[in-house]
Design brief:
CATH class of the largest domain: Mainly Alpha
Strand order of the largest sheet: 1-2-3-4-8-7
CATH topology of the largest domain: Transferase(Phosphotransferase), domain 1
Mean pLDDT: 78
Structural class: alpha+beta
CATH architecture of the largest domain: Orthogonal Bundle
Largest sheet: 6 strands, antiparallel
Distance between the termini: 75 Å
CATH superfamily of the largest domain: Transferase(Phosphotransferase) domain 1
Number of helices: 10
Strand content: 15-25%
Number of domains: 3
Low-confidence stretches: 214-225, 329-342, 344-412
Shape: flat
Length: 437
């Protein structure tokens, strides 16, 4: 296949330019890890592989191009680090006989996970699985390419933390999606802001199931773990001897909430086990309901038996805390005072009709989210107020109302254009009548 002029980092047409005018990648100096597939490789006779987007302990994710559907995709390759090597830039080979058995079992589990995730292809908060297949002595999952940014990057762009309501709107749909996955026996085991993506159309999506394993018998116990300090509970660390389950993802989700609200990484579980204390969000000065603070710290309990058993219970307590927060707001009708009318000279007209002037009660601007509500999660509804109106007197708007609206973009521009239009119409009418209006 001729891929001349196509950037293998973003799959846009470069027009013969280098570096790529779209993403800035330098095609002449592509650095490829020996563990990665070579950009330009075609898998399953259908997927053109580009640069690697990321690598974890269990797999490598590449940007790819679907040659049939003619769209960008993400291709996840099962590649357990420390157990395999890459041969001839293509085949995955175990390093010894013991690794060969583990690779075979891992590929089967990876394929089984793809089958389960395929059943959630229409879920708005789980990355959409498009195809999966075996090749090169391993397995691949083809997923939708997420156009957006990770929650980690979003938090950084917002100064490190976000409001409680916004955190709810992003994370509660993820919790409900995770609960659906748990009912299939699948654990994620790598929940963190890195693996939650916010799409350009306002959805929060859970992705990167490289550490996912089925909580069936010893399969969870024997599987290697990806450990992210601060997000991983103590049972994920080697030698803990504690069974992993839905409560493992509960801890990671609690840690994600903690990070989003406080801007701080939670204290690592081993440090907490050694006696290092971790302050709650409210103790750090974060303005959240007391019920939410307790729920997050309950999810972050060191012992599994002290945590929520299900992610659904955690999510429900967060919602209840939000309901209490909603009740604390003053939703009484807006106070209406009457503003006087003025004549053309700017004097108040005695007895003229008064125009309503609305004074809105105070509420936190931070409660207004930039991420739309998704699926079944019900966010607190802020009061809706009618737009400010005025009644003109002698063609002059209410000066007080003009002052209150002066900050609105385009207000004076619109007024000036409207005035000119009326003036032109009057002049045309005057000419037709021989100078008479």
């Amino acid at each position: 296949m001729n891929i001349t002029g196509i950037c293998l980092s973003c799959f846009q047409n470069t027009g013969g330019l280098n570096p790529c005018p779209h993403c800035g990648a330098d095609a002449a100096h592509i650095q490829v890890s020996p563990q990665h597939l070579t950009p330009g490789t075609v898998l399953n006779q259908n997927y053109l592989i580009g640069k690697a987007l990321g690598q974890g302990g269990f797999g490598i994710t590449y940007i790819g191009w679907d040659l049939n559907a003619w769209r960008i995709v993400a291709v996840k390759e099962y590649y357990p680090s420390g157990l395999v090597t890459r041969e001839r830039g293509l085949f995955v080979a175990p390093i010894d006989d013991d690794a060969k058995a583990k690779l075979k079992k891992g590929v089967n589990l990876f394929f089984k996970e793809a089958l389960i995730l395929g059943n959630f292809s229409s879920h708005p908060n789980i990355v959409n699985v498009l195809h999966f297949f075996r090749q090169n002595n391993t397995a691949y999952i083809v997923m939708e390419y997420i156009n957006g940014k990770s929650l980690k990057d979003y938090l950084q762009a917002r100064g490190g933390s976000i409001s409680f309501t916004e955190a709810m709107q992003i994370l509660c749909p993820i919790m409900l999606a995770l609960d659906d996955l748990h009912h299939t026996g699948l654990l994620h085991r790598d929940i963190s802001p890195d693996n939650i993506y916010l799409t350009v159309d306002g959805h929060a999506k859970l992705l990167d199931f490289g550490a996912a394993r089925f909580s069936i018998g010893e399969e969870t116990q024997n599987a290697a773990s990806i450990i992210k300090p601060g997000y991983a509970p103590l049972e994920q660390y080697p030698g803990s001897g504690t069974e992993q389950g839905s409560w493992t993802d509960v801890y990671a989700m609690g840690a994600t909430f903690y990070r989003a609200l406080t801007g701080n990484l939670p204290t690592a579980a081993p440090d907490r086990a050694m006696g290092r204390e971790m302050q709650s969000p409210r103790e750090l000065g974060v303005n959240i309901p007391e019920g939410a603070d307790k729920a997050i710290m309950h999810a972050l309990s060191m012992k599994p038996e002290d945590r929520y058993v299900s992610i659904r219970s955690f999510e429900e307590d967060i919602e209840h805390a939000a309901a209490d927060l909603k009740k604390s707001f003053d939703f009484s009708p807006p106070q209406v005072q009457m503003a006087p009318q003025y004549n053309a000279q700017g004097w108040m007209v005695p007895g003229a009709q008064m125009s309503p002037q609305v004074f809105m009660p105070n509420y936190s601007v931070g409660m207004q989210s930039q991420i739309p509500q998704q699926v079944s999660f019900q966010k607190p509804v802020l009061p809706s107020y009618p737009p400010m109106q005025y009644i003109p007197a002698h063609g002059m708007p209410d000066p007080q109302m003009m002052t209150s609206q002066a900050s609105e973009p385009g207000f004076f521009e619109w007024t000036f254009r409207h005035f000119k239009k009326k003036l032109r119409k009057a002049l045309r009418k005057m000419r037709k009548r021989g100078g008479k209006l």
